[in-house]
Amino acid sequence: MARKKKTHKRVLSLEVDLVILAVDAAFEIVTQTGFNYRQEKVYPLLQSKGFAIKRCQETLARRIYAAPEARKPHVVYITGVGHGAYDSFTGHFYEPIFTVGDYSPEESNGKIVHFISCETARDLGPDFVAHGCRAYFGYDEDFTFLLDIADIFFECDSEIDHAFAEGLNAGQVYERVKALFDKHIAVLRANGDDYKAATLEFDRDHLRAPSSGAQWGDVNAQLI
User: Fold this and answer.
1) 57 contacts 65 by C-beta, under 8 angstroms
2) Cβ distance 23 to 91 under 8 Å?
3) 39 φ/ψ sector (left φ>0, alpha ψ -120 to 50, else beta)
4) DSSP character string of 174-201
5) Rounded Cα distance, 205 and 202, in Å
6) Which is nearest to 34 in space by CA: 79, 85, 88, 97?
7) Burial class of residue 9 in the structure, from the number of CB atoms within 10 Å of its CB (0-12 exposed, 13-18 middle, 19+ buried)
8) CA 151, CA 80: separation in Å to the nearest integer?
């Protein structure tokens, strides 16, 4: 009797990484401070949640490197620290990376975006949303911090990244971030540090997100 040949079925499992694009300038003390904090406190946490990080940082924080990565469909979240203007987020040595009227729809469509910079939420954020960005978090005036307590400012801001990575929607993210700002402001005031509290309060009041209005996206937008 002929031996029956065994057959083996091959099961393929395809898992597509959810990619976070990190665009971080680090060429002087302001951006270097933010970059260092995020390297230590933000990106390791995002990786621990299962996200892949594509880094366009330091001298690679330039449009020629960041724009092609932003266009990739597996990039679901774009974040970074840099300088900014109302209509532009800039990278290494102030090079414009994302500017109103000078980026392709693929760079914003379907993404959630969070930039730590001055002013971008006034014009660039709503323009991103008009071109398919699901939610935009940023500041519509200057993002100001004090070097001696810089970690407090960046902790409050990076709660945006942490909360999205934990599965909260944009509305919930904003409430959690605001609560952290409020907590630190209250502690500073209780300690008599009114100027520090007022500076942190300014940043809190100029943070824009879908909770601020539909021009910044959908309050129900989630990463996972």
Assistant:
1) no
2) yes
3) alpha
4) HHHHHHHHHHHHHHHHHTT-HHHHHHHH
5) 5
6) 79
7) exposed
8) 16
What's the CA gap between 28 and 210, in Å, rounded? Answer: 31
Given this model, what pLDDT does residue 13 score? 33
CATH entry 3.40.50.1460 includes domain 19-211: yes
- 99-104 long-range CB contacts below 8 Å, 24 or more apart? 99/124, 100/124, 100/127, 101/127, 103/67, 103/70, 103/131, 104/67, 104/71
Token pair listed for 13 = 């499992």
Give the sheet arrangement for strand 84-85, strand by strand.
84-85, 88-90, 96-99
Query: What amino acid occupies position 17?
Result: D
Q: Encode the chain (224 residues) as per-residue pLDDT tens digits.
A: 344 444 433 333 334 579 999 999 999 999 999 999 999 999 999 999 999 999 999 999 999 999 999 999 999 999 999 999 999 999 999 999 999 999 999 999 999 999 999 999 999 999 999 999 999 999 999 999 999 999 999 999 999 999 999 999 999 999 999 999 999 999 999 999 999 999 999 999 999 999 999 999 999 999 98
* Residue 92 token pair: 């290494």
Return the DSSP state at 59: G
88-90 and 84-85 beta bridge pairing:
antiparallel
